[in-house]
Each structure stands twice: as structure tokens, then as C-alpha cells.
């Protein structure tokens, strides 16, 4: 329904939207992180008349939605659409920033306010012993999968979530489960602590 509402209302919104009076005349704001939180903050701050710059360590914006959640869940073109929407409202994006960028440094550069929206880039603990190279933390695994890295997966792949092992990863091509065998699909919303290959 949201997609239909967007398609029907997007042109009308573009025609009716205008920059607020005094846009860009308020105190400049730096936002560390250009994931969902940083993009949303940048959009609303720009609408309120602040000049906004988002600082992102990655080579692209979107955070977890762009770099972790597989594209079969949220297509890249939808993420790009949202990023373009924010940029059209006057938000500046700076990519490839120092991951240890400090609030003090940004204030010295003239930003009156600094918002930290660095997101969820940490895995929770993995209750599996040993140092098996085939056990990967979920966010690392999903990032590598989303980039298209060659993960060298075996016949079965699974993930551990809340004390349960589940199997399956949606293949890049058509799904071909073995006859008589049902496979759970990996969901970024239920991705757990470890992925096993």
C-alpha cells in the first residue's frame, strides 16, 4: 500500500513542496552517519531551515538498509530513491569519512550542532565455541552476501538465532530445495548471532 501511495502522491508532493523561508540560514548541523537515522534527521533538519551535512564512513549512504539487508528484501533502487529525496531537500553528503570523526572536530569546522546517528553495526555475542572459519557473525555475513562476495557456502547454510539453529539462505538464482525438504529463508529482521557455512 505504501508503494501505491508513493506512486500516486509523489508527483503532487514534488509540485507542492517548497524550501522553507530562510532555508539554510539557521545554524549548520553535522550528522555523523548516513543510515536511516542520519538520513531522516538530515531531511527534517533541512526542512526546518538548517544547512545539513551528513558524514558517512562507507562509500554510499543507507547504512544497514543498503549494506546489510539483502536486496531481495529491499531493492537498491528504493533505497536510492529515498537518498535522492533527502539530497533534493538540500542535504550534503560526504562519503569515505574517518570512522573516528569526533564531535569536537566538527564543531571546530563550524558546525553548531552535531548529531550522532551511527546505527547498529555491532553483533551480539555468539554462544558457539571455537574459532571455526566457517562461523561468521551475522552482520559480517550479510554485508559480504549483499556485496556479492564469494562466500564459498557448503551444501547447507544456516543461522543461529535466540538459541535455535535454522537453515537456509535465499539463493541468488531461483530457489531449488531438495525434493521433500523445506528450507527456512534468511530474514534480516530475524538474523541472529552467527551464520554457519
TrEMBL record:
Residues covered by region (Disordered): 170-197
SUPFAM superfamilies: FAD/NAD(P)-binding domain
One Pfam entry name: NAD_binding_8
InterPro entries: FAD/NAD-bd_sf (IPR036188), Glutamate_Synthase (IPR051394)
Domain of life (superkingdom): Bacteria
Enzyme Commission code: 1.3.1.1
Gene Ontology molecular function terms on file: dihydropyrimidine dehydrogenase (NAD+) activity
Keywords, in A-Z order: Oxidoreductase
Protein name from the UniProt record: NAD-dependent dihydropyrimidine dehydrogenase sunbunit PreT
Source species of the chain: Raoultella planticola
Amino acid at each position: 500500500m505504501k508503494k501505491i501511495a508513493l506512486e500516486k502522491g509523489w508527483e503532487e508532493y514534488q509540485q507542492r513542496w517548497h524550501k522553507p523561508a530562510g532555508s539554510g540560514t539557521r545554524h549548520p548541523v553535522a550528522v555523523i552517519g548516513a543510515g536511516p537515522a542520519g538520513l531522516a534527521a538530515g531531511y527534517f533538519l533541512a526542512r526546518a531551515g538548517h544547512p545539513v551535512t551528513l558524514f558517512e564512513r562507507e562509500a554510499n549512504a543507507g547504512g544497514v538498509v543498503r549494506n546489510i539487508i539483502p536486496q531481495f528484501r529491499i531493492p537498491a533502487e528504493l533505497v536510492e530513491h529515498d537518498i535522492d529525496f533527502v539530497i533534493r531537500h538540500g542535504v550534503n553528503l560526504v562519503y569515505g569519512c574517518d570512522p573516528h570523526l569526533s564531535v569536537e572536530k566538527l564543531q571546530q569546522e563550524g558546525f553548531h550542532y552535531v548529531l550522532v546517528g551511527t546505527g547498529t553495526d555491532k553483533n551480539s555475542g555468539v554462544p558457539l565455541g571455537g574459532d571455526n572459519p566457517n562461523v561468521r557473525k551475522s552482520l559480517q555475513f550479510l554485508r559480504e552476501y549483499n556485496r556479492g562476495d564469494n562466500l564459498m557456502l557448503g551444501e547447507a547454510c544456516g543461522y543461529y538465532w535466540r538459541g535455535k539453529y535454522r537453515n537456509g539462505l535465499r539463493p541468488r538464482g531461483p530457489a531449488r530445495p531438495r525434493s521433500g525438504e523445506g528450507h527456512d529463508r534468511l530474514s534480516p529482521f530475524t538474523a541472529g548471532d552467527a551464520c554457519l557455512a
